[in-house]
Amino acid sequence: MTLKQNIYCVIMAGGIGARFWPMSRQDKPKQFLDILGTGFTMLQDTCHRFESIVQADNFFVVTGEKFGGEVMRQLHTLPPHNILTEPERRNTAPCIAYAAYKIYATDPNAIMIVTPSDHHIGDVEAFRQCLVRGVEYVSQNDVLLTIGIPPTFPATSYGYIEQGDEALETGRGAIVRFKEKPQKEEAEALLASGRYVWNSGMFVWKVKDIVAALETYLPEVAALFANIKSYNTTSERTDVAQAFLNSKSISIDYGVMEKADNVHVLSGDFGWDDIGTWESLYRHVSSLPSGENPNHKLENSPHTLVRVSNPDKQVIVSGLDNYVVVDMDDVLVIAPKGDEATLHDLLNKHAKNL
């Protein structure tokens, strides 16, 4: 695809990755780490997969104030003024509003791709082809497009989207509804129905359409960023910081996407996963050559994931089935990998620097 000047990519990189403690810390969350062992951080991987679609100066990264320098170190070609910082986390709606109004100020005809920074994409070329179709679809239709993933198992950690008839027949079209993360029995029913896709949290839209939607469904948030006159000036950071501090915390799904009447879905099968838990990480690391460290000896320990801060350290594990072993300089954690409740309790009781 020929790079078009009016296509922008906004990467959301403001989370702290708490479920990956103790690897992910408040001072260096998972998006800035090489979680998968590929030689690139999750942020770098995210940026790379869009490079054939988006021009270098049309990337924006939204992140916490203290991570601006880290983004610059990891993405050397990113212009400094394309690093958009939040003084406090306010979920995805204010984050997207900031980026949308900033882009709109200089290019009201822009097409905006929004993506989290912590996804795994198995087939990058298929992913790019899907995004190209999404951009073309949005350029011809005034819709808010979300990328849906055909489910492969009854996931309880993802939201779902019910597709309308056109989307079921053609792979793109209007949605019926969003569905919150289900319990296992309901997830099995959603999968069996054949009408649902996973909600990937990736979006494509004309910037004017998301601005209109924000002003319709989240007018109080929209007003905070619409009233800023200092975009792309030295006063921008101060004015934006005040807008964030005055904004409520709300997701774009809850604030806009579940209410708007022009939400469409494009189904894409490209080996997607949201790397949000140790279990999801294991699904991919175990299939990668880089996932096997010769210094890690696992005996009678199936489905066990080992992560060590010192790659030269010898680790011997025996008799642990489906565990996660994480050895950092200051803490060692050994816990059942699939038991998210236990891991969450450990985090709340013992986590440092979070």
From TrEMBL:
Domain of life from the UniProt record: Bacteria
Q: Which SUPFAM superfamilies match?
A: Guanosine diphospho-D-mannose pyrophosphorylase/mannose-6-phosphate isomerase linker domain, Nucleotide-diphospho-sugar transferases
Q: Is Zinc-finger found in the keyword set?
A: no
One Gene Ontology BP term is:
GDP-mannose biosynthetic process
Instruction: Spell out the InterPro entries in the cross-references.
Output: GMPP_N, Mannose-6P_isomerase_type2, NTP_transferase_dom, Nucleotide-diphossugar_trans
Q: Which UniProt keywords apply?
A: Nucleotidyltransferase, Transferase
Occurrences of domain Nucleotidyl transferase (ranges) = 10-284
Which Pfam family is one of this chain's hits?
Answer: NTP_transferase
Any one Gene Ontology MF annotation carried by this entry is: mannose-1-phosphate guanylyltransferase (GTP) activity
Q: Which PANTHER family match?
A: MANNOSE-1-PHOSPHATE GUANYLYLTRANSFERASE (PTHR46390)
- What is this protein identified as? Mannose-1-phosphate guanylyltransferase
Q: Which organism is it from?
A: Porphyromonas cangingivalis
